[in-house]
Give the backbone structure.
Amino acid sequence: MCRAVDLHQAVLAKNDATAHTLRAGLTARGTTVINLLSSPGSGKTALLERELLLARERALPVAALTADLATENDAVRLARSGVPVKQVLTDGLCHLEAAMLHRHLEGWLPDDTRLLFVENVGNLVCPASYDLGESLRVVLASVTEGEDKPLKYPTAFGLAHLVVVTKTDIADAVEFDEAAFRANVEQVNPGVEVLLTSARRGQGAGALLDRALAAADGAPVHAPVMSRQDAAREHTHPHVHAGPDHHDHADHHAGPGAMTQTCS
Amino acid sequence: MHEMSIAVAVVGQVEEAAERAGGVTAVRSVRLQVGELAGVVPDALSFCFELACAGTLLEGAELVTEAVPGRARCAPCADEWAVGMPPRLCCPRCGTATDALVSGRELQIAGVHWEDGPPHEHTREPILEER
Ligand SMILES: Nc1nc2c(ncn2[C@@H]2O[C@H](COP(=O)(O)OP(=O)(O)O)[C@@H](O)[C@H]2O)c(=O)[nH]1
Ligand SMILES: [Mg+2]
Ligand SMILES: [Zn+2]
Ligand SMILES: [Zn+2]
């Protein structure tokens, strides 16, 4: 017999639930995750190199995990700062998922880590859909990428807690229009902070570290409009449970009680 | 492309739902709501879905995607508007940022059509989840 069954399940419910659990677990042990997203070549690794070095100088216990499709170059660059660094090769997968991050942290992340920086796979589409259990999501764009980047990737920029402009040292050469860029960010993510940085010249050095520390200390983080939707969506999400034995409430709609009707 | 990961997640969730319901012999179609702001390309998803279904209970199932337009509202102006693409999240009347989207971020399995065998073919009761 053919049956129509209502499921009403969020497709990413499992990743969301894993991310919630991971965030709760890490927060409980004093670790805050910062998820860095950008196109390849925007300068995520270069910016992190500076910020990690600064953290080391300030004796802050930080660590970094960097994801790449195939090479280990970024980990080699980041490890020069002297903080714990781990390379994750995604083997072609274009984004990190919460369960992958969780697996890689086990047995590696030092207990006293205050801030964990995660350099996501260079890509502004896919990583935007996956919560990694971060408390601060940072989306970067270099001055060479065009002022309309936020409009071309509205989901990525729209869900950012913080936007970072990189390579400002070459802004004049490429005639970067800061006001236009800010207006475009504002269109998709009203109220989000935009930081200007240059890893090469040092503009904005330490600013990312400061924002991360503030988030770790419980300062309120920007709440993007796009992350807020009416209650209907909330109900399709699994509820947050801190324990390892939580189960997925979103699934219960599919149980024997799910609304079914026979189709013709 | 994460459309493949998403397709695999859809197939996995439908398989689990079918397992719980018991007696499902085939899945004919899956109805998916894709919000304009979900960051997913429906065409790419359809392509991946076919691949992800191969060799599973969903082999040959049709993916029916329902596009959900992005909408936002402004409480003070009692106004609601289509945000469009790229989205415009500030009120067209007063210019303030909307405090919440009404729709557009959906990425959810609305429902399925599946075949279950005649009652006598049920070899066991549906598994009830503990809670
Ligand atoms: N001029 C300039 N170049 C930069 C800056 N930051 C990074 N780059 C260059 O941009 C390229 C990509 O940087 P990288 O950090 O590897 O980007 P990622 O792919 O986002 O990690 C490299 O050639 C860097 O030297 C900067 O602040 N100024
Ligand atoms: Mg890099
Ligand atoms: Zn992708
Ligand atoms: Zn208004």
